[in-house]
């Protein structure tokens, strides 16, 4: 099972301070908009999402169908197939993708320590 591009989505208090901090670590702005309180920062294959006032805790994010540059992949495991696999293992879902649809969808689970994992397909 391939989960797609990985990033960490951080809940930040001051997006401008966080942007500047990650720039000092060699990241550059890849996507997003400070005025909308979110930025995606990139350093090589590493992606860090900065989100101000959007959610409480940090989230591990996987994007089926994308590489780390947000390029669509020709072959990938659809989010609904990943969800079916997760459910077959008895892992409870926090939110669920509609398995009767195609295209963009997402679902969320928590790991045993309560960390949120978002599987978010954009294609």
In summary, what is this structure?
By secondary structure, the chain is α+β, with helices and mostly antiparallel strands.
Task: Give your account of this protein's structure.
The chain has 123 residues and is an alpha+beta fold. The chain contains two helices and eight strands; from the N terminus they run E-H-E-E-E-E-H-E-E-E. It has an eight-stranded mixed sheet with strand order 2-3-4-1-5-8-7-6, covered by helices on one side.
Question: Top keywords for this entry?
Answer:
alpha+beta; 8-stranded mixed β-sheet; single chain; 123 residues; globular; 2 helices
* Percentage of β-strand residues: 35-45%
Low-confidence stretches: none
Number of E-type strands: 8
Distance between the termini: 17 Å
Structure classification: alpha+beta
Number of helices: 2
- Largest sheet, if any? 8 strands, mixed
Query: Tell me, what's the shape?
Result: globular
Helix content percent band: 10-25%
Helix and strand succession? EHEEEEHEEE
Instruction: Name the average pLDDT.
Output: 97
How are the strands of the biggest sheet laid out side by side?
2-3-4-1-5-8-7-6
Nearest-angstrom radius of gyration?
15 Å
